[in-house]
Amino acid sequence: xxxxxxxxxxxxxxxxxxxxxxxxxxxxxxxxxxxxxxxxxxxxxxxxxxxxxxxxxxxxxxxxxxxxxxxxxxxxxxxxxxxxxxxxxxxxxxxxxxxxxxxxxxxxxxxxxxxxxxxxxxxxxxxxxxxxxxxxxxxxxxxxxxxxxxxxxxxxxxxxxxxxxxxxxxxxxxxxxxxxxxxxxxxxxxxxxxxxxxxxxxxxxxxxxxxxxxxxxxxxxxxxxxxxxxxxxxx
Length: 235
Description:
Largest sheet: 5 strands, parallel
Radius of gyration: 19 Å
Structural class: alpha/beta
Strand content: 15-25%
Distance between the termini: 29 Å
Number of strands: 14
């Protein structure tokens, strides 16, 4: 899942981003309201963590703009403004949760996960394709009775592919959702990590679930699914 933090305190933003990345989220950071607006215009996010006292465009203004354009994106306000009227104002403006500074990171991550479970679309805690199971609560993966150990990026990639079984995800979609916007690594990183996943998820088993759609991208599906490619179904 991909999160955006809009926070003008660089140390706090880095602290929160580092902690969320350790929890296997892809995280982008914007230092002011205008930059946050540009990120939201350019990329698809699962959650926004928003400070209120921002330069150039306040968090309140950004929240109101967001609700005019993307009504379903969950928003967690993270601010030093703890007055009851501030909370009421921003809940009425469209915030989904409100956490005041200083805060405990453990509480922040609990609130983030709660919002993601509610999400803009219905989310399930356990994803299944054939005998492959991914548990979002425990972050455990197993194939039948056998547990599978994955790195953070392998897990994020598999979760994204399993979020819509049989849908084909392009390399660009995967890169934008699983890796941070600032990623400037090798150009074939998606293919590399798909190979890593296949060694753990497919190679030890007779039935293969990770499929390549040549010239399009990758999907996870069982033998009974057909593959959706640009609106068409093919065997």
